[in-house]
Amino acid sequence: MQPQHRLTIARRVSRVVLTQFSDLLLTPEDRMRDYYRRSYARMDGYYYPKHFMEIPYWIPILCSMFRPDRFKRQLMIVDDMSAAERECQAAGPDEAFLMSVLDANLECVLRLAGTGAQLILGGYIDARQFEQYPNVRYLSEPADILQVVPGAQAVSTLDYSLFSGMECIPRYSLSSGCSFRCAFCTVPSKLVLASADSLEAEASALRDLRFKLVFMDDKSFGEAPNWQKLESVGRQINRYNEKFTGFIVQTPPSLACRPGFLEKCRDLGVRYVEFGVETVNDKLLTYLRKPFRVRHLMQACEIARSLGLYVIPNFIVGIPGDDYAGTASWLSDNVDIVPVVNVNWLSLHFGNVRGDLGLPVHGVHDRDQNSSTKSWLTAVEEAAGWDMISHAYQLTDQYWTGRRTYSDVTSR
């Protein structure tokens, strides 16, 4: 839980600007974006919006708290900092800019804080970095908005109206939190089920978006006892979206290899399964406190292959002592069911209370999953991480060139 930062009543607010920093600004390196564009073009149902890989989930959450009959609501995508500063400088006293702050965009937010505009922030950084700005309020959770913006309401059905018509992969949740306690993760460890009466409303909230797939935001799908409600959610979406083809779920291999689980997932409409593989090395999986071992991963992949499902692994590079040999070997053996990989650098996020990895934190780069500069890595180790990323991109690119997922639509 973040410390509250001057949680005082705001002045009257009539206009809220939900502000998202573009990937084009934060990660000018084109290698990753080019790889995803090539990969997604081969994957049925995958879209890649211009400024971000998916709709930032925090925006429809917060947008639901500002009724359109009481507030003017605007989406601002920042890909030019000078233009964003001018927008903030021109803002009136009844206008507020809402932002989710991460280490990757911290410097950008600090620049906008310096304009004097009213900023309402949240996220996983140290709120004390904004103490010098009387125009900034840093909240520990969305519910705190009720205390700082008169007229705001409690979170209700998510509101995607600011993204109406966008081709995307929207998120949907049957539960929040995760009882597993991976050492690097900031997800709350309390598992909370979505209320039964909200499921239909949340599915209907997606109707103005253009999509074929829905990403299940449940952090360990299958852990919460309501996971089989996916079937009714899919039926409801199909009633208004004839192009809807199914779901993407994320779950640890140890859950995925339970007898009959992936078979049932397929029958419920699951088409792609994300595994937080991180590294194919049992010693390092223990270090990270991952809830599976390599044998579970191997078994889960065999089941997925037999069912015609596709696997998307999430890798972490920059783990001390990783030579990536096991990861490279596993990927080579399973590239036929892996159309794309997700890769991030190990980071020590602010607010992580799960455990100490015994690594130093000497700056923002140590907390930024997009940065390869880490206090615990030598130049040789950093280069090895980049070699791993290049290898994973090249291997999947080469295999999947000329191929498509679900090329036989009758198999769905």
What do you see in this structure?
The chain has 412 residues and is an alpha/beta fold. The protein has two domains: 114 residues, 3-Layer(aba) Sandwich (Rossmann fold), CATH 3.40.50.280; 237 residues, Alpha-Beta Barrel (TIM Barrel), CATH 3.20.20.70. It is built from 14 helices and 13 strands. The strands form three sheets. Strands 6-9-10-11-12-13 form a six-stranded parallel sheet. α5 links the parallel β3 and β4. The longest helix is centred in the last third of the chain and has 22 residues. The protein is globular, with a radius of gyration of 21 Å. 38% of the residues are buried. The N terminus is likely disordered.
Largest sheet: 6 strands, parallel
Briefly note the CATH topology name of the largest domain. Answer: TIM Barrel
Rg result: 21 Å
Q: Write down the overall geometry.
A: globular
The low-pLDDT segments are: 1-7
Beta-strand proportion: 15-25%
The overall average pLDDT, rounded, is: 91
